[in-house]
Amino acid sequence: MTFFKSEQVQQNLHEIFDTYQEIAAVTAALPKMNKEEKIAHIDKCKGLIDKQKTFYGRLSLAAGEDAEAADMKTRINALSQAFGYQSLLDCMDAMLVTLDKAAEKELDSL
């Protein structure tokens, strides 16, 4: 069975997509949120990044044995490099730093 046809992988992708949709649905309302809601939104974003990092780790492991996974990893990293990052993990780590700073700013203004 290929990596992407695995039931577990399909479930993980579905969870990532559902979480993304939840976040995207409320992002437009961010300016109207109170401090606690903004912090909760930041935490959801961090949770999404955590899910994506876990998936990327699994993809990286599978890339050694699955050509489709290897191709996907190569394309993801190429896109990340186009934005100035070494890999997707570097990009996600930078996102977490940005989210931590945003959360800190919200907490400081409570």
Overall pLDDT score: 94
* SS summary, helix count: 4
SSE run: HHHH
Oligomer: single chain
Distance between the termini: 51 Å
- How much helix is in the residues? over 70%
Number of beta-strand segments? 0
Which band does the percent of strand residues land in? under 5%
What does the main sheet amount to? none
Q: Helix/strand-derived class?
A: mainly alpha
Q: What gross morphology would you assign?
A: elongated
Question: Total domains, how many?
Answer: 1
| Radius of gyration (Å) | 16 Å
Unreliable segments of 5+ consecutive residues: none
General description of the model:
By secondary structure, this protein is mainly α. Helices cover 78% and strands 0% of the residues. It has one domain. The chain has four helices and no strands. α2 packs across α3 and α2 packs antiparallel against α4. The longest helix is centred in the middle third of the chain and has 28 residues. The chain is elongated.
Quickly describe the structure:
The chain has helices spanning 7-27, 35-62, 67-82, 88-108.
List keywords for this structure.
mainly alpha, elongated, 110 residues, 4 helices
